[in-house]
């Protein structure tokens, strides 16, 4: 399994279940998600699990190729098609024959190329630049973007017909901030991989540091977390990463968003349906082991309280913020009501 999708959180379980289903089809997919969430990794996973898995997986970053070159990159060109075309050249569609063509940052594709891509999706044929011989496109297309294509359609920046052709089955990758219970597993993976490669000594994160990492928003997602681990493996090899060692942006951002105040310094839990003190990790420092299930249960309580306080008790908006549906949130509230605060 790809590192980006290690974990047992509800969002990841739902994503991996969807991957298993869509991999068996030949449908076009639109993979959405913030930068750093692992869109290419999920595309590779779908390809490898599909009947096309023994054929090539060819990635193309549409945003990294100049507008004047992207058509020949995708479709290839004939000799003499333009200045500098001194020989015939195969395009990415041809290189992906029988396999999967992954069009990353599809929102950056020029409108003129969107028309030609639409034709390939509809008719399964294309021509090389400078050529007139139709060529069959025997590929599965997976597209990805971090942009809001629906908004781009409304602004006439992206073709509506192409949008619907691409998004036959949407696959949305959750950001790291909505799967914080996976963070400790991801940390272990990155640290163990570093050690197995013989690149240094292991590190561990103190309970307070781990808690603060779980409160951080992670705008760079998995990529940002991996970079953070590598930094500490270099600087703190063989040691424990304490709360005070974390970068200021993590300490400041997490502190600002960790609690909502009612003006008296107490956590605002109005209309939450649950009660309990803020998550206090001092007790986790006692003894020789940590009760991980209890830790994450208390973390879940804290996150739900924070979300409900942020949206003034509105369960629908809080559930959307947490990446779960309203029914799941209500079920969690009922379950937490029966657990004493000191146990969760």
From TrEMBL:
Sigma-54 factor interaction domain span: 5-234
Entries under InterPro entries matching the protein: AAA+_ATPase, AAA_lid_NorR, Homeodomain-like_sf, HTH_Fis, P-loop_NTPase, Sigma_54_int, Sigma_54_int_dom_ATP-bd_1, Sigma_54_int_dom_ATP-bd_2
Record's keyword terms, sorted: ATP-binding, Cell projection, Cilium, DNA-binding, Flagellum, Nucleotide-binding, Transcription, Transcription regulation
Cross-referenced PROSITE patterns: SIGMA54_INTERACT_1, SIGMA54_INTERACT_2, SIGMA54_INTERACT_3, SIGMA54_INTERACT_4
SUPFAM superfamilies referenced in this protein's UniProt entry, alphabetically: Homeodomain-like, P-loop containing nucleoside triphosphate hydrolases
GO molecular function per UniProt: ATP binding; sequence-specific DNA binding
Entries under Pfam families matching the protein: AAA_lid_14, HTH_8, Sigma54_activat
GO BP field: regulation of DNA-templated transcription
Protein's name in the database: Putative flagellar regulatory protein A (Polar flagellae)
